[in-house]
Amino acid sequence: MKNTLIFIFSLLFCAQTYAQVAYEKFESRKLNSTRELKIKLPDNYDPESDLKHPVIIVFDAEYLFEPVAGQVSYQTYFDEMPESIIVGVVQGKERFYDSYFDEVTGLPFESGDRFYKFIDQELIPYIDSKYNTSKFKVAVGHDLMGNFINSFLFQDTPIFQAYINLSPDFKGSMSENVAKRLEWLENDVFYYMATADEDIKPIRDRIRKTNDNLKTLENQNLTYYFDELVGDSHYTLVSGALSKALDRIFELYKPLDDKELKEKAFPYEGTLDDYIVDRYKRIDDLFGISKPISEEELQQLITIADEREDIESVYRIGKLANKLNPSSSFGTYYMALHAEKLGKTKKAVKLYESALELDEMIHINREFIMSHVEGLKVVEDDTVIEDEEDEEN
After folding, report:
1. Contacts 24+ apart (CB under 8 A), 43-46
2. Where is the signal peptide (predicted)?
3. Do 133 and 268 fall into the same domain?
4. According to the model, what pLDDT value does residue 231 have?
């Protein structure tokens, strides 16, 4: 039943995606011909906004564009990845010439080199000039175009930061050259490759051999993922591999989850405000997206701070929350809680009272804060009485 619902949901996304696709004719000087593009902008795209969007370039768009666009819509809906601009290059009968390669190196050659320059020098600059794009670019290629997209790795500064290789048909020495290039790459790159147990055997064997080389690389700039799907063919592996590829490439973009909290946040050396700030700085650095830190994530970090008995992090997260949203009582409340735990009763009461004048949190209302204030005032009064009795004696 669950799988049926997911399938129906995916069909709805694909239908919606198809209705929102714009078709453009692009006059290419490099190719001396006109190429058809499929372009899908984010649902809420605003050309006047400062918000930047990653760009996903899809080759073989006549059959690969809709699966990519449907998967992007699906994952974007659940905030699993940023809203992205999808650009499909329709190749059709030109595919053979577009993917033409040198038999020794596997790199684009003659008509393939012209197509390479069309992407590098015409298409991407055009998309960047027309839309609100971030610096993060993703290339998606299947079969021969899977071999082709790897050629962009050999630029001094690659124009693509992520590569989705769907059953790539590696040619010449491309496989070996990719391994050597990724080993010494100085830029952050996400590299995904997939095959299946029922893939075309020569292609699958070459991919497996390539994986054996890539999985041993120790380059901190490389984030590498590999999947061998079960029960899929050279063509049916596309949908499952796309889902996994996008999920992994944009893993950092997702909100905090239990796995990250347990494996990364809990053992983090330093206060947890630094952890979350560094995390979102990396999102900005990698994807070119300024994503706000949510109050829900700060609350998750408060829970982790309690588990590691890290009272300083509670205070620092409170200060960060005040900076991010001064109108919310969240930050002031946790700064007050920090003062209370340190036994600074007067300071805690003052901060709690300040929190009462701010917007309520979802999980902590005014009545709960008042109970803290009243309890501390009773303690404070009792302390004063005890002090007076001591003076009389």
Report:
1. 43/73, 43/83, 44/83, 45/83, 45/85, 45/131, 45/132, 46/132
2. 1-19
3. no
4. 96
Q: Over the stretch 114-168, which tens digit does the pLDDT of each residue have?
A: 999 999 999 999 999 999 999 999 999 999 999 999 999 999 999 999 999 999 9
DSSP state letter for 23: E
| Local confidence band at 204 (pLDDT 50, 70, 90 cut-offs) | very high
Three-state secondary-structure class, residue 199: coil
Mark whether 223 and 269 lie in a shared domain.
no
Pick the last residue of a domain from 224, 253, 282: 253
Q: How many residues does the chain have?
A: 393
Tokens standing for residue 284 = 């900005």
Give this prediction's pTM. 0.84
Quickly state the pLDDT bin for 10 (edges 50, 70, 90): low
Residue 198 burial class via C-beta count within 10 angstroms: exposed 0-12, middle 13-18, buried 19 and up: middle
Query: Per-residue pLDDT averaged across 237-241, rounded?
Result: 96
Q: Whole domain around residue 339: which residue ranges?
A: 258-392
* Residues 241 and 313 placed together within one structural domain of the fold: no
- Write the CATH number for 43: 3.40.50.1820
pLDDT higher than 90, residue 373:
no
Q: Collapsing DSSP states into helix, strand and coil, what is residue 126?
A: helix
- Rounded to whole angstroms, how far apart are CA atoms 207 and 359? 56
| Same domain as 231, residue 85 | yes
Q: How many helices (H) and strands (E) does the chain have?
A: 16, 8
Burial of 128 (0-12, 13-18, 19+ CB in 10 A): middle
The number of folded domains in the chain is 2
Distances (CA, A) of 23 to 38, 94, 124, 128: 5, 18, 16, 17
Asked whether residue 290 falls in the same domain as residue 332, the answer is yes
Structure tokens at 60: 């073989």
Q: Which two tokens stand for residue 298?
A: 């700060």
